Task: inverse folding
């Protein structure tokens, strides 16, 4: 029969050991370039973004309007049936105030980001996006927001054609 | 289906960077597991390995690359990968190799070397996001957890103090774990609340670190357990796994449905219908402190929103009624993604066989549950183990 | 069952371009550290021996692949080896025509399990299976503790 382990292996290295080559190592920088196919649904989604519109897709079987649009419903696994234009207003489902950029470096001006569910689609159908014209005291889950679109000539057919979602003003729809 | 037991386990230290190559990490953990089970490589019928993205170690098809360090030469071998769920899923794969009758003894080895990726493993984590819908926003993976944490806190009106208690408990528990990377006997709730804000509401001490490490298990069929005269086999009583939709922006993140589905599958197999009473201790996946609470509820160990209350009342301490993460968890020991198997399945094995040393839970324990969680909040793998 | 509709105008189909980039620092490991340090400092090539399986591994490993024993028995490999197999590469890594053809070979040493894949410093007419070769190292000050400390293998003149 065996025994309970007494010694735990592993030789620790410090950042200095690795960065300043105190241990032998080989360094490599792979370069891989991609052109991802947007496919049927997202191609249309991006084309509509360029026109300043949000579009969803109806699943007749589940009686839901799905957003982002997709050609098949992953719940019932049937093809979706038709395109449905949505509004560009919505509700904040959750958010974060980030002091880190994408490489985990600290930034001083925070990024407000979160999930916004879009009006016209079924409940809680949303996308991740930035929030703007908010402060940490004004932003809250349940806040009504509206898309701030970039000027038409600056739009390229990208999720960034919307600059951010901002609080819905009095009387706006 | 045949009964399957864990009869040995091993793990390396978990550290931010280790000198060993991926192959050497696998060897160290495998050798320990074989020695603790009292067997040699020739006795092993199949080898299973789990490891998360190739992008961390920086070697394409790394499962095949490090397989010789797992002793897989000339044997049936496969690598499983379900994101962060791999820490428990590899054990499930080991289980079905034996339960099906294909193997009598299996070696399961999980490895992760995140330190090869520079400047930070975040650069690779970034590729989990959808390239068209998410990546143009230049997201950081911490945002995901921050958004899920915020939703969970808001729906149940949970204060940060109650969540910080989990980090304090686990980092203190980890002092008794020989492999721990971030143990701290003196950490307090204030330390956590005053640590720097990464992406509100996540602060630095809410998160487990990236780590290098490896862990291994030896599993055996009932016949092999008898043949080898194993004194303290720990049986795999129930397993379950489940994946949710990739459209995470369409889901309410306050409750992990997929963890509950996997848990139900495992409890059914283990004939457990009242988890809170029939489970003696738990090792839920805790890469962030709020995740322990989120998963306790997903594992149906308490009602939705009740987990922070149990923590506040001390129920989840090692000497409480439902010890949770007695190992110190990922928060205290470290988070080398797939190699967390050592702190989850490994801990269940060491606790239930009485080999947990200073971490041994004082009350009598017969059954434990653990889960691992992966991808963009999608994957749940659950295992129930018992004696 | 297929999709309910399909775009037929290819100009309406979009693609999104991007790249996957990171830097990797690969440590040599416990066995590799000794191997590369010895190569860099003293120009010696070492291997490890498993007494149970009677195999001597090159590159040296910390463990035996067959029985998973920990290996502590280090030996120097013989001074010359032989070309076991070779190929002539006329395209470079990117798939463009290389300025000169390069001969790449798998080189084995007597009594040693394993070997090196490396450049052979000889014209393609001279290289054949069984050709005796020896490693040509960079001058010591230029060695960095990587496989490129061996510049190439050159034919042994008799």
Result:
């Amino acid at each position: 029969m065996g025994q309970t382990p007494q010694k735990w292996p592993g030789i620790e290295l410090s950042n200095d050991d690795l960065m300043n080559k105190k241990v032998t190592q080989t360094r490599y920088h792979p370069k891989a370039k991609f052109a991802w196919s947007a496919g049927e649904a997202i191609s249309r989604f991006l084309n509509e973004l360029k026109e300043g519109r949000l579009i969803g897709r109806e699943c007749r079987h589940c009686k839901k309007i799905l957003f982002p649009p997709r050609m098949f419903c992953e719940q019932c696994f049937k093809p979706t049936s038709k395109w449905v234009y949505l509004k560009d207003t919505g509700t904040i489902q959750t958010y974060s105030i980030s002091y880190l950029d994408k490489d985990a470096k600290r930034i001083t001006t925070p990024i407000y980001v979160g999930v916004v569910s879009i009006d016209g689609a079924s409940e809680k159908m949303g996308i991740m996006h930035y929030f703007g014209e908010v402060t940490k005291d004004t932003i809250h889950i349940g806040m009504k927001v509206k898309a701030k679109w970039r000027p038409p000539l600056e739009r390229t057919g990208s999720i960034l054609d919307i600059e951010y979602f901002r609080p819905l003003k009095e009387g706006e729809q | 289906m045949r009964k399957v037991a864990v009869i040995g386990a091993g793990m390396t230290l978990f550290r931010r960077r280790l000198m060993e190559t991926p192959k050497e990490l696998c060897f160290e953990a495998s050798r320990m597991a074989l020695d603790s089970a009292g067997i040699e490589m020739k006795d092993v019928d199949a080898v299973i390995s789990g490891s998360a993205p190739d992008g961390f170690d920086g070697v394409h098809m790394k499962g095949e690359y490090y397989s010789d360090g797992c002793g897989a030469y000339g044997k049936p071998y496969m690598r499983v990968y379900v994101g962060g769920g791999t820490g428990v899923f590899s054990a499930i794969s080991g289980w079905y190799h034996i339960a099906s009758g294909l193997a009598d003894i299996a070696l399961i080895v999980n490895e992760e070397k995140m330190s090869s990726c520079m400047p930070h493993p975040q650069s690779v984590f970034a590729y989990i996001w959808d390239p068209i819908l998410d990546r143009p926003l230049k997201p950081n993976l911490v945002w995901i957890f921050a958004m899920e944490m915020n939703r969970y806190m808001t729906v149940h009106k949970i204060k940060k103090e109650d969540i910080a208690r989990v980090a304090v408990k686990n980092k203190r528990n980890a002092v008794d774990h020989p492999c721990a990377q971030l143990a701290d006997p003196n950490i307090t709730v204030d330390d956590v609340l005053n640590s720097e804000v990464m992406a509100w509401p996540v602060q630095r001490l809410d998160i487990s670190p990236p780590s290098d490490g490896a862990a291994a298990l030896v599993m055996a069929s009932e016949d092999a357990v008898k043949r080898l005269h194993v004194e303290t086999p720990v049986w795999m009583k129930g397993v379950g796994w489940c994946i949710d939709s990739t459209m995470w922006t369409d889901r309410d993140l306050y409750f992990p449905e997929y963890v509950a589905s996997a848990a139900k599958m495992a409890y059914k197999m283990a004939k457990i219908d009242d988890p809170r009473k029939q489970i003696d201790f738990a090792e839920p996946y805790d890469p962030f402190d709020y995740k322990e609470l989120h998963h306790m509820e997903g594992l149906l160990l308490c009602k939705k929103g009740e987990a922070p209350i149990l923590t506040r009342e001390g129920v989840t301490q090692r000497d409480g009624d439902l010890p949770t993460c007695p190992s110190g968890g990922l928060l205290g020991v470290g988070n080398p993604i797939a190699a967390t198997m050592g702190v989850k399945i490994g801990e269940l094995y060491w606790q239930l066989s009485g080999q947990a040393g200073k971490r041994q839970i004082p009350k009598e324990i017969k059954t434990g549950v653990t889960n691992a969680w992966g991808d963009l909040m999608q994957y749940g793998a659950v295992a129930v183990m018992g004696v | 069952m297929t999709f309910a509709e399909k775009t037929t105008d290819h100009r309406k189909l979009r693609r999104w371009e991007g790249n996957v980039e990171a830097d990797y620092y690969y440590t040599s490991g416990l066995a590799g550290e000794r191997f590369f340090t010895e190569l860099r400092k003293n120009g010696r090539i070492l291997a490890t021996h498993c007494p149970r399986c009677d195999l001597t591994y090159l590159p040296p490993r910390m463990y035996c692949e067959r029985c998973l024993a920990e290996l502590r028995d280090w030996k120097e490999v013989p001074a010359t080896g032989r070309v076991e197999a070779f190929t002539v590469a006329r395209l470079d890594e990117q798939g463009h025509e290389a300025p000169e053809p390069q001969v790449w070979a798998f080189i084995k040493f007597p009594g040693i399990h394993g070997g090196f894949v490396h450049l052979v410093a000889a014209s393609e007419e001279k290289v054949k299976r069984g050709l005796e070769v020896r490693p040509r190292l960079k001058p010591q000050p230029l060695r960095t503790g990587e496989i490129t400390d061996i510049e190439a293998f050159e034919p042994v003149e008799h």
Observations:
- The longest helix of chain C spans residues 29-42.
- The domain at 29-155 of chain C is CATH 2.40.50.140 (OB fold (Dihydrolipoamide Acetyltransferase, E2P)).
